[in-house]
Design a protein that fits this description.
Residues 1-58, 231-255 are annotated as: Disordered. The protein is built from 12 helices and 2 strands; from the N terminus they run E-E-H-H-H-H-H-H-H-H-H-H-H-H. It is mainly α and 281 residues long.
């Protein structure tokens, strides 16, 4: 018996595989299902777009946990303003994932979230990282980071809402991971006079910043931690005479981090007044 031929789409001569039946769908692979989709219009070559960082999905944490132990490398010292350590970035990113999945979406501010509603988020973080949430300082630190991630998530929701100039269309186009009912509640919030007034004030306040940092979301504490570790690992040599040491290297590490995060990639200050602030120290 000759092998079955693939049907040809009328008029264009394209090979189109036979339609999947119910029995075939049950055992078909993803590739089979994609191959069985109806032909699309010829692909139009699009202009290259700037690469953007995708949404964090927590895959790195899941992979580490599959190894059978909690993730270490998180240092939360008494009196510190932020956590530091080899996994500090992973720690903070995972809190963003936890917020999107477990935080009460219909609460507009973290101060409105009750301690009982926070417990699932705290428990999730403690189950993944080697930290002690019974320590008041650790709990306060985690609460503060989650609060910042909560504000960022609501900000991203508002940015998504503003993509549509028509409020009606904006309501019909919820952000991914937000169900339509929760989205409508958020839209009510975005359209309220109180929110609009506060949003305008925030925009004006950001425009007044004259010394913005230029090096991403890494905290000042983490930068100091990495700088100190880097310098501690360098063995002094006979050539490291005092006269050969650059002036910047003799400055306090806090001042060097400040300067490093207020310069452009070409080494120029983000604002001439920023250098004056550094000199004043």
């Amino acid at each position: 018996m000759p092998p079955a031929r693939k049907r040809l789409a009328k008029g264009n001569g394209q090979n189109v595989p036979a339609r999947l039946t119910r029995s075939r769908i049950a055992t078909a692979s993803v590739d089979d299902i994609e191959e069985a989709q109806p032909p699309t219009h010829p692909r139009v070559k699009e202009a290259p777009s700037r690469k953007k960082r995708g949404k964090t999905k927590g895959y790195a944490v899941k992979k580490r946990l599959e190894e059978g132990q909690k993730i270490g490398g998180i240092i939360i010292e008494e009196g510190a303003k932020a956590p530091v350590g080899s996994n500090e970035n992973l720690f903070k990113m995972e809190m963003g994932v936890v917020v999107r999945v477990l935080a009460p979406i219909r609460k507009f501010f973290w101060t409105e979230v009750t301690e009982e509603e926070k417990l699932p988020l705290f428990a999730k973080i403690e189950s993944e990282f080697d930290i002690d949430m019974s320590d008041p300082h650790v709990r306060e630190m985690v609460d503060g980071i989650i609060a910042a991630r909560f504000r960022r998530f609501k900000h991203n929701c508002h940015q998504h809402y503003k993509k549509e100039s028509d409020p009606i269309k904006a309501r019909e186009n919820p952000k991914k991971t937000v169900n339509i009912d929760d989205w409508k509640v958020l839209c009510d919030h975005f359209e309220s006079p109180t929110f609009k007034k506060q949003s305008l004030a925030n925009v004006q306040n950001r425009a007044m910043q004259i010394h913005p940092h230029t090096r991403g979301a890494k905290s000042q504490s983490q930068r100091l931690y990495e700088l100190n570790n880097k310098e501690a690992a360098v063995e002094p040599t006979e050539n490291d005479a005092e006269e050969n040491v650059p002036a910047e290297a003799s400055e306090p590490p806090e001042l060097r981090v400040y300067a490093d995060t207020r310069k452009k990639r070409d080494g120029q200050w983000i604002n001439p007044a920023t250098n004056a602030v550094k000199i004043a120290f």
